Amino acid sequence: MALIKNVGKAVLGLAVLIGSIGKFAPHLFFDLPFPFSVILWVTTGNSMPMYFMPDAWKEDEIDSWMKDGDLVVATGAKSGTTFMLYCTHQIRTKGTDLDDELFPDVSLATPWMDLKQSRTGSWAEQKDRYNDTVLSNGRKLKEYWDNPAFPFRIFKSHYAPPELPVRKKGGKKIKYLAMARNGLDVAASMTNFYSSHTDEFRKVWGGFPPDISGEDHAADEPPAAVKDMLPTGPMAEIYFGYVKKWWAFRNDPNVLYMHYADVRKDLKGHVSKIAKFLEVDLNQNELDVVTKRCGIEHMKSLPDKFGYKMPLNLDKGLWDSEKDTIVKTGAMVNTGEVGKGKAKFHPKVVEQWRKAEEDMLGDDPDLLNWARNGGKY
Fold it and tell me: What are the C-alpha distances in Å from 132 to residues 11, 37, 143?
């Protein structure tokens, strides 16, 4: 009896210790092997992915660093984010940055302000360093993302309202470009994306996202990345939450909500549409140049531009801020096919996803149809 009581006390003590770490120092979990690192992170109440943070976008904070006319490219995960960041940069320069001198890396020219760049990072800690950090070439980081040659700055986010204060009263006049994609196509892209991360990035975040390159994507059970995105998974909000939240804001004047399939079908038409939204006048020659530079083939010729650096990382011994990247070279610009998800997965997985879509989006048939296929809304 005494032994049982002592074991019970030990278990209780361990639970209290884990809970305290999860509340006050959850970054310590990342020294544990995967998946224990993530299990403890999630079970102690921390959100996924662990490197997302919405603090920069809070209503009482956003006006302290944003400017009138700034653009937030808040596309859904694996729904053309890098594509739109580079394309809107081409639009704001009217295709004149021919050698991409103003775009050395996507994270430098169009920074991801809701990315936690260190294990213990925070918006308060990173905010000033976006302005003060000097890179190895002697130039300030700010020269790339806040260059006076730009008519507006561009920032990346994967959030949606209410985390993004789209209807904030007063303050800076900010524009939001959002884009959704067929859910199965997102899931198919996500299975590749998990394995596209570098080992250096995984070391920072406790082995997440895991390398699942050995999984059989044709099996009748969903791959790990798909399981994570299903309604009961820890990353369901990344797709279903995103699509639903932006739908309610699709007609707001400072929002351009597009579907990936529509953009791929008519790139020139959408370059023109985005330029109009951003109040950039492109003549026919500029439109042709920008459209070509926004194309997948051109972007694939620039693999070193899309590795996503973390210049503000402070994790000594884990990350080299000058050379390390979040994803492997060339991993962020693929074929971007429309409809590849249905062909990639087993019919049982396709059916499971279809049911999930109906459960999560089916209360609005127009939204469900648009999320799957795009088109006018």
Answer: 47, 33, 10
